[in-house]
Amino acid sequence: LAWYDADRKNLELVLGVQSPYDAATSVATLLGNARASFKPAHINAHFAYMGGGFGGRDHTPFPLYVALAAMFLPRRPVRLAQDRYQQFQAGIKRHAFNIHTRIGVDRATGKISAFAADHVLDGGGLANFSASVAAVSANAAIGIYDVPKVDVTTVALHSRGVTAGSMRGYGTLQTMTALEVLIDEAASTLAIDPIEFRRRNALKTGGRTMAGNTYDVVVRTPEILDRLEQHAIWRHRAEEKARGRRAGSVVGTGVACVTKDYGSGADTSLSSVDIDPEGRISIHCDHVEMGNGIGTALANRVAAHLGAVADEVAVAEVDRFGALGLVTSGDPYTMDQATQDAAQRDPRWVPAISSPTSSSIGAHVGTHSASEAARVIFRFGLWPAALELWGLAPNDPRAAKWDAARWERGRLTMPELRPLSLSEIAARAHARKGVTAAMAHSFSRWSWSRATFAIGGEPWTADIDALAVRKSSGKFVRLDRVDVKYPPTVFNRIGTSYTSLCGALVRVEIERATGALRIDRAYTVLECGRALTPEIVLGQAQGGFAMGVGYALLESLPLYEDGPGNGQWNLGQYLIARGSDLPLQGLEVDVLPPLPNDPPKGMAEVVMIPIVPALLNAIFDATGRRFHALPVTQQMLKGALA
């Protein structure tokens, strides 16, 4: 929505996008050089809940279109909306891949010795994120495995097709589907159990990725494979195959295990947290709610530090953080080290101010600065107030043990001291003019920025690069950092250092006469560090399963003249997974418990990826036929069984 008040030169926008800051700055750039009579003095962008995003609303041109329309039609509200036919025609699509892959295995040991792949992506008619998708897909080409020799070539091509760009999985869905089917084929050829073959070749914690670096997180592939191997779907696969034969159908069981990074290599987190004298907590953040539960995740992560779930959470805010006085320059993905070193001498400079909600970064990145802001409030606001309430002098040894205090049912506890309610502590913190609000910015290039600030005469070092604090009902005061360490720019070359894992088992039953496929049972097991909102994790896993089923068995779009670009496509032609296509009572989701000090990890994409190759491997187990193009339709299955 847009409305231009020509008298006041105000342009008002209401948008639903994954990248609010980019949308606002793009409109400003578009209109910034206009003639005075067509140049707004103020642009007010309001960001609404948008429903699902899945990458299709990241860096979208729609805000530019509606802003231009409003400028040509002043004093009139303008609404830009597409019907389903137009959305099929103009919406961002997942890239079509042509993949040729080879693998070498030492027969004596069952260890992979070499891997080679050629990927060709169809980017469509307009450049969107094809270059980035190509790079990410290449880095993911060997999945969970440790391969000593790798040769991967990835090319994104311009074509006359519809525009392809960012979409859940971001190229890794395509390359890891090909990989996991190939792994299964190799295991079958070598007569090695498919899970055992994966176990022998899995990358261990501390092992080097294809790009030559190690992951910064623990790689828990052995635990995932153990859970898959121990599950009844896997243990009873032979009996189920025999049962199917007796019933006149074919039954197969498939397995797959994948890893997926979270983050883009230039991610930011921007938040403020405050607590009032009654103990009510408010959180404001620049990240976007799009079904990822970011609001609840923020509240839960802050509650770990402040003892209660927030009373107010506001997301998709880009103009609330002026107290930090942030400035930026250059491109965080391409700048060299000398440029970064020179720029960071300005205590207000950051490599990027605000990033999109994409790349599965909600839990890890989106909540990070709010967590750090809450830590500042606790350490310099609530903790000193608690010491006063307990009657502890600053030189009491217990006064330095703030990180040993624990919240239990909304009360702060320390051994041999009376529990204190949050409202009691908050009231005292305000009365003594302690820190009751904090605003923070963080930057991640596969590692967090880290800076030191002086708060109340004490040095405070944290994984942030900008900080402002407010005492009681005063105003925010920016604290210039006295030292900062940004991740080196060479980290732009490593591909990723953050990853989550997911494995899947699928049992399918196919009617011989018709080729109709039914998913009998399925099991997915994932690890995502500390789950901030377990219910959302479960929902993402279930939704990822449904998307995987659609991608593998149903969804098809011709690339060119007969495809969605002709404006004739709707959900009648484009089939998506429905409840009848899913094992509604037969899907089990398992989440590994977090390790000590595990951070939250992104998991929204990884849960979709193994479903596709697990289905393809199950189809092979049932039919003895390998399919090398998607989707595998009922007609194709009927032909294979004829």
Brief summary of the model shown:
The chain has 642 residues and is α+β, with helices and mostly antiparallel strands. Helices cover 30% and strands 24% of the residues.
Describe it.
The protein has 642 residues and is an alpha+beta fold. The protein folds into 3 domains: 2-81, Aldehyde Oxidoreductase, domain 4; 96-204 and 217-262 and 498-641, 2-Layer Sandwich (Aldehyde Oxidoreductase, domain 4); 267-493, Aldehyde Oxidoreductase, domain 4. The chain is built from 17 helices and 22 strands. It has a 6-stranded mixed β-sheet. β17 (466-471) and β18 form a beta hairpin. α10 runs parallel beside α13 and α15 (534-553) packs across α16 (611-623).
Question: Mean pLDDT, nearest integer?
Answer: 96
Q: Using the coordinates above, name the CATH class of the largest domain.
A: Alpha Beta
The CATH superfamily of the largest domain is Aldehyde oxidase/xanthine dehydrogenase, molybdopterin binding domain
The count of β-strands is 22
Main sheet strand line-up? 10-9-8-14-17-18
- Taken from the alpha-carbon principal axes, the silhouette is globular
The fraction of residues assigned to DSSP E strands is: 15-25%
Q: Identify the CATH architecture of the largest domain.
A: 2-Layer Sandwich
Q: Count every helix, treating DSSP H or I runs of 4 or more residues as helices.
A: 17
Flag low-confidence runs: none
* Domain tally: 3
Largest sheet: 6 strands, mixed
Radius of gyration: 27 Å
**SS class:** alpha+beta
Report the CATH topology name of the largest domain: Aldehyde Oxidoreductase, domain 4
